[in-house]
């Protein structure tokens, strides 16, 4: 069977859709909560940090001669390290997937289907993600590109419709919150930006693996732009104080649009497009988990792994957070060490390992005819 | 053969799945909903009294007063429920209404003066917490009970809730005396730097109620819903009223004047006194804080332009000095309106002009000190008004009618 191939643009779409869907929900509340009207400055700082992380990740990925993630790590750092890292990443993507599913299910329950049992929502979401993965990474990549196109269309329309309500003076005075609070507020967006580490999994499938650097940086910048737009819009429309009490400021901003008496309640369009990005994100993370487990544990049938992991994900998602508020706490506070470990520390360890075994890699590459 | 059977089985499975995926989990049919067009909030001393103006779709589709063979039916019905909290009161509606209340089409929320003076944080919480009610609902205050306002029919509009929203939107657009304040705006104002906000008043003008369809058999109705003064809020409580002139001043200072009418006195050469009426079609206000010698002051620069729509004095409007005189009179009038509103705001201890935000943005360091007791800082802050008015058009006649008649008398 031919190895699936995805284009650079599709990779960019995957990176953006792997970062922003959940980030746009929690970043405005988290940054504005800490840094008030300076929240956007925190997002800008996080964007700069995000680009550095993206460059570092792409630099590590470029060391991959074209092998799948776990195989590559095994070939360079040894079998045990390969299995361990593959397994750990499998666990990470699985946990992240559960968190994303629950965030989405909570949102749908809060905003639209408040009487539908959350179990049903979770089952449907996991089933759809599993269905798309069954069609392979190419299907996810194509969907990601289409969804990105819709996001690009929706953002200017949203800004245009909210134009009368936007008052950029609400961002003033700059640096009012103080350096400490602005710094604290950067943690959440930086961690979301570090999800660019999905490139470890995706890069081997790229048609032009050398362009991973471009895809990584463009993806990171694209995500930052979205986060910045949402944060600036939230503050400039509502002011910092009211945003603190909003769970989903992104949708509140669109929710207040009233053009005459014929155009109102249009947030459903934004919710629909955002919902699509969420499905792409869920698919990407479930794919990551299935991919890592299948290769780390040397399982023959990834379909069975997909089925098993999906079932486990449904149960985990339901049982882990009996209350919605616990998830909120988890996303903003508890996920900090979790994301730091898997998106920053382990990649850094991999980089060090690769540097140490550089000779071995070169030797192997030289042997390859 | 095998694959044909397999395909057929798959088709059967997929078709049977269709039965389960109709998209209807907890579906609610339209005829199970009580669509609310206006909500009233009263306080009886211990409990919240929530009143709902619910649409009767069949009556609306038939048209008001069109009786056909039967008696005319009211397009709305009003009922109230009580509770310790707002949502509890709303829940009690299930005990008396055959339909579930649906707030997505609610246009206005009327709060009684009593509720406004007691404080209404709970109401704002309900709006921000639940997805059903919209934050774009317009808020109004009434001096009596909110329920009585909901019971009134309106002229020209079949659905009174819709009509009330239209009145406030039209008022904000055409006279700019009272603003339309959606719930989210109220939340923003009360959490802003000044912790102050405003709400328009709605009241029943006339002694009797217009709550029966019989009233519409005459060309006049016994009472009308009217917009009146401006309620001033501070820290989520109402602290008093501003009259309509002061309210216009607030609109000017907040830069929210879209169109308004200014009447200035005039005297012609014969000593005849009358009034000139101008419609301001464009106005922008720049309220700027200034710190001189540690003392804060404000300058409001108003730049307005408009049209002369009525003149009662015998003046030759071709003469530039007469035009200039008229312009300066309007400017003076605007100046007085602004100063009156500022003074009233200071007396009431409520900065509803956005002055606190401006001071915070321009002097963030000093703000840390001022914010501790902004009201006392604000109470002693002078306002200087620099108003400019330009008459863009004199209308379709360049001389007042009075001028022509006076000239004829002379001739």
Automatic annotation (TrEMBL), chain B:
Keywords annotated in UniProt: Germination, Lipoprotein, Membrane, Palmitate, Signal
Membrane topology value: Lipid-anchor
Superkingdom, natural source: Bacteria
Keyword Signal in annotation: yes
The Spore germination GerAC-like C-terminal domain, residue ranges: 230-395
Annotated localization: Membrane
Classification via InterPro entries: GerAC_N (IPR057336), Spore_GerAC-like (IPR008844), Spore_GerAC-like_C (IPR046953), Spore_GerAC_C_sf (IPR038501)
Ranges for domain Spore germination protein N-terminal: 27-202
Pfam families xrefs: Spore_GerAC, Spore_GerAC_N
PROSITE patterns, sorted: PROKAR_LIPOPROTEIN
Protein family per UniProt: Belongs to the GerABKC lipoprotein family.
Family annotation (NCBIfam families): spore_ger_x_C
Protein name per its UniProtKB record: Ger(X)C family spore germination protein
Species for this entry: Paenibacillus terricola
Lineage of the organism: Bacteria, Bacillati, Bacillota, Bacilli, Bacillales
């Amino acid at each position: 069977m031919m190895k699936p191939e995805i284009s650079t643009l599709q990779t960019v779409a995957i990176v953006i859709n792997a970062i922003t869907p959940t980030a746009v929900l929690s970043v405005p509340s988290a940054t504005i909560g800490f840094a008030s009207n300076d929240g956007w400055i925190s997002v800008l700082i996080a964007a700069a940090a995000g680009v550095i992380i993206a460059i570092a990740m792409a630099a590590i990925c470029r060391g991959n001669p074209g092998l799948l993630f776990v195989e590559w790590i095994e070939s360079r750092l040894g079998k045990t390290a390969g299995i361990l890292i593959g397994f750990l990443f499998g666990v990470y993507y699985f946990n992240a997937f559960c968190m994303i599913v629950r965030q989405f299910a909570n949102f749908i329950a809060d905003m639209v289907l408040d009487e539908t049992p959350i179990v049903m929502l979770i089952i449907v979401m996991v089933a759809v993600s599993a269905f798309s993965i069954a069609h392979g990474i190419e299907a996810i990549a194509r969907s990601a590109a289409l969804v990105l196109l819709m996001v690009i269309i929706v953002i200017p329309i949203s800004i245009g419709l909210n134009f009368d309500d936007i008052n950029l003076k609400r961002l003033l005075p700059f640096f009012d919150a103080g350096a400490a609070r602005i710094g604290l507020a950067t943690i959440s967006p930086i961690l979301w930006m570090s999800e660019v580490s999905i490139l470890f999994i995706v890069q081997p499938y790229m048609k032009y693996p050398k362009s991973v650097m471009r895809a990584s940086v463009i993806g990171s910048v694209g995500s930052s732009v979205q986060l910045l737009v949402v944060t600036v819009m939230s503050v400039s429309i509502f002011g910092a104080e009211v945003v603190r009490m909003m769970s989903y400021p992104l949708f509140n901003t669109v929710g207040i649009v009233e053009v005459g008496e014929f155009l109102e309640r249009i947030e459903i369009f934004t919710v629909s497009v955002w919902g699509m990005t969420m499905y792409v994100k869920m698919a990407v993370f479930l794919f990551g988990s299935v991919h890592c487990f299948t290769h780390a544990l040397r399982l023959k049938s990834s379909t069975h792994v997909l089925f098993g992991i999906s079932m486990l994900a449904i149960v985990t998602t339901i049982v882990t957070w009996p209350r919605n508020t616990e998830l909120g706490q988890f996303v903003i506070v508890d996920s900090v060490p979790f994301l730091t470990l898997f998106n920053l520390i382990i990649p850094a360890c991999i980089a060090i390992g690769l540097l140490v075994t550089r000779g071995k890699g070169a030797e192997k590459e030289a042997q390859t005819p | 053969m095998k694959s044909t059977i397999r395909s057929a089985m798959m088709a059967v499975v997929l078709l049977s799945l269709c039965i389960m995926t109709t998209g209807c989990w907890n579906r609610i049919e339209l005829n199970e909903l009580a669509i609310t067009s206006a909500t009233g909030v009263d306080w009886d001393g211990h409990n919240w009294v929530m009143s709902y103006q619910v649409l009767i779709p069949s009556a609306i589709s038939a048209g008001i007063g069109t009786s056909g063979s039967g008696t005319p039916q009211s397009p709305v019905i009003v009922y109230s429920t009580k509770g310790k909290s707002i949502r509890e009161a709303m829940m009690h509606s299930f005990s008396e209404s055959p339909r579930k209340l649906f707030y997505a089409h609610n246009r206005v929320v009327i709060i009684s003066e009593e509720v406004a003076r007691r404080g209404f944080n709970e109401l704002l919480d309900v709006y921000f917490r639940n997805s059903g009610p919209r934050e774009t609902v317009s808020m109004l205050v009434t001096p009596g009970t909110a329920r009585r306002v909901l019971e009134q029919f309106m002229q020209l509009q079949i659905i009174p809730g819709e009509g009330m929203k239209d009145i406030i939107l039209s008022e904000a657009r055409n006279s700019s005396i009272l603003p339309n304040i959606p719930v989210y705006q109220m939340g923003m104002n009360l959490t802003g730097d000044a912790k102050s906000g405003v709400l328009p008043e709605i009241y029943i003008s006339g002694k009797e109620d217009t709550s029966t369809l019989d009233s519409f058999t005459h060309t006049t109705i016994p009472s009308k819903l009217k917009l009146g003064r401006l309620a001033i809020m501070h820290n989520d409580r109402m602290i008093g009223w501003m009259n309509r002139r002061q309210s216009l001043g607030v609109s000017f200072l907040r830069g929210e004047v879209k169109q308004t009418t200014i009447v200035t006195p005039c005297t012609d050469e014969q000593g005849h006194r009358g009034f000139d009426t101008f419609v301001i079609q464009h106005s922008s206000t720049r309220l700027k804080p200034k710190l001189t010698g540690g003392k804060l002051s404000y300058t409001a620069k108003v730049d307005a332009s408009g049209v002369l729509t009525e003149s009662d004095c015998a003046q030759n409007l071709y003469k530039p000095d007469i035009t200039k005189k008229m312009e300066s009179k309007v400017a003076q009038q605007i100046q007085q309106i602004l100063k009156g509103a500022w003074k009233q705001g200071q007396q009431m201890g409520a900065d509803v002009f956005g002055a606190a935000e401006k001071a915070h943005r321009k002097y963030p360091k000093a703000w840390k000190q001022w914010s501790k007791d902004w009201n006392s800082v604000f109470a002693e802050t002078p306002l200087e008004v620099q108003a400019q008015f330009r008459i863009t058009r004199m209308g379709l006649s360049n001389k007042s009618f009075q001028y022509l008649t006076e000239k004829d008398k002379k001739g």
